[in-house]
Design a protein that fits this description.
By secondary structure, this protein is of the alpha/beta class. The chain is built from ten helices and eight strands. It folds into two domains: 1-106 and 153-177, no CATH class; 179-307, no CATH class. 30% of the residues lie in helices and 13% in strands.
């Protein structure tokens, strides 16, 4: 995907020169390897700041709500599905957006690369098949790109944007030979006590920094339930019940809306795989309602509609 950079810059420059948009949201190189950061440009001459490679994992849909400008945004498959959700939920207006679709072959897992690498990483490059890590001592390492993808990207079946005004490149082939919910089924097969211990261990490292919430494009409530004081739903400390309640309730707020973009896990400073919670709800929505979030503008989310013949097997 590194070959996309020139086209990304060309498109951004053209849209600004033609005054079709007031701002372009994309990525620029970060100050650390594998840490590209969101970039907001308003002048055509700044288009050369933009880049695109396997380190653009942040979901740019997170930066669209609450804006009134005419905006161009570069969107991967998961980003585009979140944009669809934002349009349905009246958080953005479709006619205020120029969506530039970016067919995606997956984002690099920066923690996985770092854990496999001995020595200080100076830079990370890539091509279609390999990730090349250059070390500060002059050495280098190569990894098979498929083996160092983010977990959500390795299982993604919607790599192409579902909504766009133009494309950076030709659409890529979608993955059809992946088992999206194998890890969820393993937890479902545990008994109650095993699941309790599993989630206690999973969430024990949480420091309540709320990076997952802040990175999530679905968490746009003016006041999050954890910040409410009248009534106060949760304590402010590190009590494990409060921590677990935060994660479980946030997951339920994302039910039927999550696109498994991985932004929450990518942002977590202690590497918690809280995607397991939203993936369970994603699996349930798919199996009960044949619903996948953000695939169409013509249908409300599964938990946002009511039909007399809705499945009610969960009611006892």
């Amino acid at each position: 995907m590194i070959a996309y950079t020139d086209k990304v810059r060309q498109i951004a420059r053209r849209l600004l020169e033609e005054s079709r948009v007031e701002m372009v949201i994309g990525f620029r190189k970060g100050s650390q390897p594998m840490m590209n950061e969101p970039c907001f440009i308003r002048k055509a001459e700044d288009a050369d700041k933009l880049v695109w490679d396997g380190n653009c994992g942040i979901n740019l849909a997170n930066y669209l709500t609450g804006r009134n400008e005419k905006i161009a945004v570069f969107a991967k498959g998961c980003d585009s599905r979140n944009i669809v959700t934002h349009i349905i939920e009246n958080k953005v207006q479709r006619d205020k957006l120029v969506i530039v679709g970016v067919p995606c072959t997956g984002m690099i897992d920066k923690r996985l690369v770092a854990s496999r690498t001995e020595g200080e990483i100076e830079s990370v490059g890539e091509n279609a098949d390999k990730v090349v890590v250059k070390l500060s001592d002059g050495g280098s390492l190569e990894y098979d790109r498929r083996e160092v993808l983010q977990g959500n990207c390795a299982l993604c079946v919607h790599r192409n944007p579902v909504i766009y005004d133009e494309l950076v490149a030709d659409l890529v082939e979608e993955q059809t030979d992946v088992d999206r919910w194998a890890d969820v089924r393993e937890i479902e097969e545990m008994d109650t006590e095993q699941r309790r211990r599993f989630f206690e261990d999973l969430l024990a490292p949480c420091i309540r920094c709320y990076a997952c919430r802040n990175a999530c494009p679905l968490c746009y409530c003016p006041t999050c339930f954890v910040d409410e004081s009248k009534p106060q739903w949760l304590g402010k400390g590190q009590d494990q019940i409060d921590i677990q309640t935060f994660h479980f309730l946030r997951a339920f707020h994302c039910a039927g809306r999550c696109t498994d973009c991985g932004a929450c896990q990518r942002a977590c400073p202690v590497g918690i795989n809280m995607r397991l919670l939203t993936k369970k709800l994603e699996k349930d929505c798919f199996e009960m309602y044949r619903w996948e979030a953000g695939m169409t503008l013509d249908q409300r989310p599964a938990l946002d509609t009511y039909k007399p013949d809705d499945p009610q097997g969960f009611i006892k």
